[in-house]
Queue: 3 jobs
Job 1
Amino acid sequence: MDNKLQVANALATVLKDQLSVADIQNKIEMPKTSDLGDLAFPTFMLAKALRKAPQQIAADIVAEIDQTGFEKVVATGPYVNFFLDKKLVGANILHEILTDGAAYGNNTDGEMRNVPIDMSSPNIAKPMSMGHLRSTVIGNALANILVKNGYNPVKINHLGDWGTQFGKLMVAYKMWGSEAEVKADPINTLVGYYVRFHEEAKANPELDDQGRAWFKKLEDGDVEAQQLWKWFRDESLQEFLNIYDQLEITFDSFNGEAFYNDKMDEVVNLLEDKGLLVESQGAQIVDLEKYNLPVAMIKRTDGATLYMTRDLAAAMYRKREYDFDKSFYVVGGEQREHFQQLKAVLKEAGLAWADDIEHIPFGLITVDGKKLSTRSGRIILLQDVLDDAVKLANEQINDKNPDLANKEQVAKEVGVGAVIFHDLQNERMNSFDFNLAEVVRFEGDTGPYVQYSNARANSILRKAGNPDLVNAELSLTDAAAWDTLKLLGEFPATVRRALNDREPSVIAKYALHLSRAYNKYYANSKILVEDNEKDARLALVQAVSIVLTESLRLLGVHAPKEM
Ligand code: ARG
């Protein structure tokens, strides 16, 4: 049983006239230091009702409470402090983990309701940036965390495959491009055209008009424009798929912006019917003044639709298609206003489910304190990062464990895992300066450190012959094991908190924490010594391995058994 619940149940027998079990559970705190106990209950809020000083209330509760199942219960000033029966609690936790295996910490909160996650969503004809990497790995981790909490996530890659930039690209291609050049190295070549277009357009603004005109042709179904578009899209997507492959991240849908072309009238008609569409300098807009937001542009002067129009159509499509509980958008914080506008327009149109749309923003990755941008050429190519990380992992393994079987595979799991973990261990909104050496550092607070802790646990289990311990005697009296046991017991609550906060970093930080506690325990105890607690110690090692492996899996990182 959950430790908080055990404490709340005990308290409820004394306080049943004042508070419910759930109320009590909400008030239970963790004492600052473990010498004050494992859980504490403050009595201040009872003073008025009971007309007694909190100190007195705490003392009275201790006198009355049934202490069975606890090491002791004491009053410390206004607090009732509970010391859990470590042997019993520890044995229960180990038994539960060994029984449940990877399913430990699963819950059914989500009742299988659908949650579409708009994630990754890179732009065709541009390289996948570090920002898109963040969206990809955060979205993927949230999807795994949703499943663990009983939801059904739908991973949607809302590809940026439509918009005026395609018009510009077509103009550039027709002026300076060659088919062979694009085929040889699609994205780099297309980016080159794009950068050149922007440079030349500075001196020659007429190019921008041509770009807009070509995009209009595309929207109107012009055959040449359509062919070029499809070709650019296919070539780009191939490169993206290659990266997703390396990250081992899959999608349920690649319906990008273009998918909504034939679903745009519905949006425009709805807004028209509700009398929300107004003309402004030839363009069609929705006024959002009452939300304190800038106007949302729905159609350009030339009738072309916008990013916003396509997002409105996508939101409505997803509601219809998935009848979602929540609809997530894992998109950088710089688009916060866009999503506020999106929700506001839907709300104005009378769609109550607009409130279930959730923008899940994340911070910027900078280089030397500066923003990345395709136009300026200040970009980090994800492929380079992954390649370098795997190379570094390879060197480390050759150094430490040259005879390891499947070296290549493990190096890949460690290198790619390092990149993913580094991204996820930061709270989403924290911006960070990107520094490759930092990402692939294999000591300190890194993914490889967690992987290594797990590999060491597995190596002990191998030495012991991988015993089946579910039915063994699992009581541990060794006080040094307590920190690790307690953390193991907190995993189910951690899984819930990660979803509640939409924060994969909660899981990453937990995994680091557990690794540290376990390594400390491991350094100070002789696990394989033959005595009557050997099974319990091995069970602890096995439980650590199960929970570390599962934590890494939630983040989208492999846990090699040897490295
Ligand atoms: N393609 C966009 C970009 O790279 C992100 C799209 C996010 N998703 C959305 N539904 N707007 O900035």
Job 2
Amino acid sequence: MARSALLNVMVQAAFKAGRSLSRDFGEVQNLQVSLKGPSDYVSQADKKAEDVIRRELLKARPTYGFLGEESEEEKGTDGQHRWIVDPLDGTTNFLHGIPHFAVSIGLERQGEMVAGVVYNPVTDELFTAERGGGSFVNDRRMRVAARKTLTDCVIGTGVPHLGRGKHGQFLIELRNVMGEVAGIRRSGSAALDLAYVAAGRFDGFWEDGLSPWDIAAGIILIREAGGFISDRSGGNRIFETGAVVTGNERIQRELMQALKRPVE
Ligand code: 2AM
Ligand code: CA
Ligand code: CA
Ligand code: CA
């Protein structure tokens, strides 16, 4: 597996942020935590990790734009390229001592995702992809799962957060999907959920109310692993709508249909 110089920069930034997160995870009870909104926590760990990543990425490519969850967007002078970064995806898990969280770094060129890295510092699993080069977990090539029918599938999702999203609508969708699949999982890290779809661990995934930094890296991981990822209606307006549905070609289509089914 040959990584481009740019993907290497992203990987090194993710490792460095991962080390910072691991240190803070070991002393999570001492971290300063504040609320951005209802159920929307942010800690020093999130901010420190984002600073590390921004510094590393902009050192390598000073003209690129930078969109990170914890800071004001920097437009950059380049106009074509933008880093899209979630320094800690799964903050709620992190703050509760649950070892399931990740760093997510995506690179967009002219509105298209061209490279992505998702790194879980606890398991030391590194998910990487770049356009045309395939998707990898550590050094192993990833492919989405090949299951052909929803009945055999394990599907991930995210539950709308307090004060956000339509909880009633979600319950209807959950009931629809529950009736058609082998199992449902809810992990608390959308970035890892998408990496798991790319790795063929989850057969599919859907969630609403997401932000570009939750999904940017995951989009390219899934596409390079042969998967399909779209907005609710099968289109490409993922960042605009904050909604994703994904799986292999067939499962993604079946999942979209199941989500739309009216309740009897
Ligand atoms: P975060 O941990 O980076 O905030 C889990 O379903 C996803 O929702 C994660 O990507 C998580 O990202 C995000 N999330 C957690 N709390 C949220 C909130 N209050 N509002 C919006 N998104 C949230
Ligand atoms: Ca957050
Ligand atoms: Ca996130
Ligand atoms: Ca985050």
Job 3
Amino acid sequence: MPENGVLAVSHDKPDAKTAPSNPKVQDLSSDTAPRSEQDRLTDNFGHAISDDNNSLRAGVRGPTLLEDHLVREKLHHFDHERIPERIVHARGAAAHGYFELTDSLAEYTTAQVLTEVGKKTPVFTRFSTVPGSRGSADTPRSIRGFAVRFYTDEGNWDIVGNNVPVFFIQDAIKFPDLVHALRPEPHNEIPQAASAHDTFWDFISLTSEAIHTIMWEMSDRALPRYFDTMQGFGVHTFRLINAEGKSTFVKYHWQPVNGVHSLVWDESQKIAGKDPDFQRRAMWETIDGGGTYEWDFGVQLFTEAQASEWDFDILDPSKIIPEDLVPVRTIGRMVLNRNPDNFFAETEQVGYKPTNLVPGMDFTNDPLMQGRLFSYLDTQLIRLGSPNWQYLPINRPLNQVANNQRDGYMRHTINPGRVAYRPASLDGGSPLEVPRDQGGFVSYPEPVSGEKLRVRAESFADHFGQARLFWNSMTPIEREHICKAFQFELSKVETREVRVRMLDLLEQVHPLLASQVAVALGEAPRAEQVAKPGGTADSAEEMELLATAEAQPSASGGLTKAKNLSMEEQPPKGIRNRQVAILAADGVDTDQVKAIMQALKAEGAKGHVLGQHLGDLGGVEAKKTLGNSHMVLFDAVIVPGGAEHVQALMEDGDAQAYLLEAYKHAKPIAAYGEAQALLADSDLARITGQDLGEMQDLGILSAEQPDLAQFVQTLAQHRFWGRPKVSRISN
Ligand code: HDE
């Protein structure tokens, strides 16, 4: 805590209580501008300003004078406020927190952050979408960035990862092509934050190495519900080096404590309009309310000898190492518990780079990673404008920086003395090199030999094997969502040759997948049996067909199906940070509402009372309305009892729409007391023709009095696929 007490006065948020224990937050506080009610307005050089509303002019209605340094200073700063956004991952949000190690990897590495059990290392973690601009929505179909900076005692360590474990291309030289194809098309800058356009699919159809990652991208993995319901992966194989200098390969995994859950496509698109800030808002509000976002940190550790047995190359970033071959060992937890004070200074100015490794770690020859080792440092120069970007408060490490680098735009550090070179006999030759046994970084002495060649290794040649493994590992509903995603994306492609080339690629994953898509595109199917396109989520026939569609994988270590690829097969993990809509009109049973809110709060979830109007509903307060919210923004809906309120909701189209949307998107619905009649007589019952009172197994609860334990259990299951007649509800 700095002596000037800056931290104490700079914010009065509930999460400020977590600040003093976080050394990085204390470090930032020395640059946090204090703000108090007694502040006197000054210009940038400390001169007090008496009038901030009027320029200095000659005559009451006359021209503004060149002399007016105050207006010039203010406009000058404003004119230069923007910096280039990130070329990819421009849209993102971040939070502070800590990483706590629970299991030491001392056998494998000397890195203190991975060997000192119980130590809490400050982190700053940023989540992002890939293709969209900084002002785009949170929920396009996109792989998500998952970048974690650890401020360790040995310098910064960044795992700049994604929420899927593989990448589209195998060599960095293709990255600009991939991104140019994905981003809005250059002639008209359309479409924003979307892959559903010709250039993207043109590139993919000619780049078969992308097909495995494309399967992930077309699955619901590319539509995470919240940041804390997605996994994170380091993607590449890295090295850990122990005290004897022995190297072990490692892959990094983040497993969300709240389980892995996604949106469905219809929901994602609607959220993009109803609340484009949906995910950043959810994280902000959870943390602002004293809650946390948490992940377990796991590693897959393996040796060169193991790697040599597998029929895929561990240097190929388009391949996973199935958890069946190398289980994930959980070694710690990341807890995000503090929002940034300032978006620009922290979230925008943070510059991650995969070269931020600490001693006891090293890179591998993964050709995608090798390119990244150059690119991230390079990009910060254009984005942040100076080689001194690493001295920005959010980027500087917690330990001391000492070297002979000097000068450059915006140099803040004042380096005294006359020596800025090595070797030097003056000033004691400082700073001194640090030998390995005292914590100096030493690269792993991997033997390297060979001819200089511009080639792709033969061991990278299998492009389809793991795409088939992924397909096989999906449940029928997940397969259906993949088929529908391809149908949507490719139906937006105007060039028929591109669509057909994609079908050729898909056929090599599975003919049924290709056929389901082909029929929707008006092309001939590639399998004997096909389900009707534009089909019905509730079609038992389609589900059965999808259930039996197995492919023959390769490059999979002999597996036909792999663990933990399916989200649906992962067990439910409780309801923490879930959001529940409670529909309420005047006359609602307020005791029931309070009991529901209480029960949700006790489990870490949040009930939101949505009134027909804001304000008091006779003892509970509506902070949102049916009209200013939407079902897609919630995980479940409850209609409490109360005769007058139920009567009002029966006639309210918005209330009816909540039930229809919740049903369609497979979310829990509960109706209590008089609201049972509302359910029975709802548009939902009429349109689907279902007896909604008999659908407890499908997540529709109705009872005289709320059984809140049952509701919590139902909410924990998240989605109830297989509800009948879903296709009768329009988008
Ligand atoms: Fe990135 N990537 N990337 N990337 N990446 C950037 O760096 C790049 C790749 C990832 O929240 C840029 O600071 C190349 C894989 C994340 O600030 C840029 C290649 C993975 C973020 C860049 C890749 C990632 C970025 C843009 C192929 C997952 C956001 C701004 C050789 C393992 C970090 C910036 C944040 C950002 C280059 C491939 C993850 C241009 C050249 C693979 C999470 O430097």
